[in-house]
Amino acid sequence: MDNLPDQLVWEILSRVKKTVDRNSASLACKRLYELDSEQRQSLRIGCGLDPANQALTSLCNRFSNLVKVEITYSGWMSKLGKQLDDQGLVILANNCPSLIDLTLSYCTFITDVGLRYLASCSKLSALKLNFTPRITGCGVLSLVVGCKKLTILHLNRCLNVTSVEWLEYLGKLETLEDLSIKNCRVIGEGDLIKLGSSWRKLKKLQFEVDANYRYMKVYDPLTVDQWQKQLVPCESMLELSLVNCIISPGRGLACVLGKCKNLEKIHLDMCVGVRDCDIIDLALKSKNLRSISLRVPSDFSLPLLLNNPLRLTDESLKAVAQNCPMLESVCISFSDGEFPSFSSFTLNGILALIQMCPIRELALDHVYSFNDVGMEALCSAQYLETLELVRCQEISDEGLQLVSQFPCLCILRLRKCLGITDDGLKPLVESGKMEILTVEDCPQISERGVQGAARSVSFRQDLSWMY
């Protein structure tokens, strides 16, 4: 080792990916210790820091070229010692001049004061805050004002971030590319209009409303007019994920769905108010769509809503099938309850996707309209590699036995399916073509029945969901 040049040793260390292995290697000799200290660019720390601020100071002094830092206190208890506080963020700001990416999770001692210290990190481009309950919108605003290179901002369960002036400021900067706001209570769909010109550069948007605490903001006429006249296209948007959102006709997020012409991935989970015309507009614009995930609220099954124009139908799926030739991943799910075949998507709509798109991954959850006929149709799905069936109670052994005839299927996941027994898996045992088989909570399938059905088998039986 003594005769090897530093550059070669540097290259060797860079190939050691596991932190525990890097730590062991650095203790082998003084030279490796010093080179590792210079080379280490990322650090993940948490409950083991005690005393927190002193330990962090020591780490920052040793690793002077840190680019990415993650601090997480998941599972923290008071007996583990005091958490990192605002002073710890002073240490980061003063000792990590190259800091670009920072994640703070369950850091309950961090306040707006600490975020103001971080505002001096001029190179910071990615900030992720997960359950930091003491920070407010004022702290976020002070940080985005100082960190003008911010391109990624994630706020998850930041319960006291109520003001949204920071959104308006980010809109003027036009640097944001990845925005995630999840369960921040009073931040509503209408507040996203404040992004203004930043919609042009936004590549990824995740917006999730806390279903247990929805602050019902009223759209004033000015806000509605702003959405309807929104001239900034979402031409850079690649991924869009909306959970528990209200999609109001002609305003809010409904205006976004039809403007994402380069969209590759969309996830709509329990979004009330989505109409066929919204999905059709999306399909007509998004020719590059590769993945679509739809989880439909159970309210769609109620008799009162059967004639409701807000109800999604097969027209949506057929529009996607006809206009999205690159679609590879499809997930369709109903939240709960029994869904009559005429209340929403039927087998015809699902088959349109299978027959017209190169589907590689298909996941169906609680889709009672999908039966053995649908399984027979999958025999012609020449690209299908992964199939996941959850609570699809109309599928029997006869339908499952057809899986061995699927051209490219190598991964099968079965969960909570009542109509399938060990007999349905016998053709898989005989064919030996399946790579991965996962069976969970299917009451009529035994552990013995899955043996030999795939090269890798996972089995679990917990029937508490039935009672």
Please characterize this protein's 3D structure:
The chain has 467 residues and is of the alpha/beta class. The chain has a domain at 371-467: Ribonuclease Inhibitor (Leucine-rich repeat, LRR (right-handed beta-alpha superhelix), Alpha-Beta Horseshoe). It has 17 helices and 16 strands. The protein has helices spanning 6-14, 19-26, 30-39, 52-62, 86-95, 112-118, 137-146, 165-173, 221-228, 254-257, 276-285, 314-323, 347-356, 372-377, 397-400, 426-431, 447-450, and strands at residues 42-45, 68-72, 101-105, 126-130, 152-156, 178-182, 204-208, 239-243, 265-269, 291-296, 329-334, 361-365, 386-390, 411-415, 436-440, 456-460. Strands 1-2-3-4-5-6-7-8-9-10-11-12-13-14-15-16 form a 16-stranded parallel β-sheet, with no helix packed on it. Helix 6 (112-118) packs parallel to helix 7 (137-146). 33% of the residues are buried. Mean pLDDT is 86; it is low at 218-222, 299-307 and 338-342.
N/C terminus separation: 64 Å
CATH class category label of one domain: Alpha Beta
Report the sheet-strand fraction. Answer: 15-25%
- Numbering strands along the chain, what is their spatial order in the largest sheet? 1-2-3-4-5-6-7-8-9-10-11-12-13-14-15-16
CATH architect. name of one domain = Alpha-Beta Horseshoe
Reported for the largest beta sheet, the result is: 16 strands, parallel
Radius of gyration: 26 Å
User: Structural class of the secondary structure composition?
Assistant: alpha/beta
Number of helical runs?
17
> What is the CATH superfamily of one domain?
Ribonuclease Inhibitor
Protein name: COI1 F-box domain-containing protein
InterPro entries: COI1_F-box, FBXL15_LRR, Leu-rich_rpt, Leu-rich_rpt_Cys-con_subtyp, LRR_dom_sf
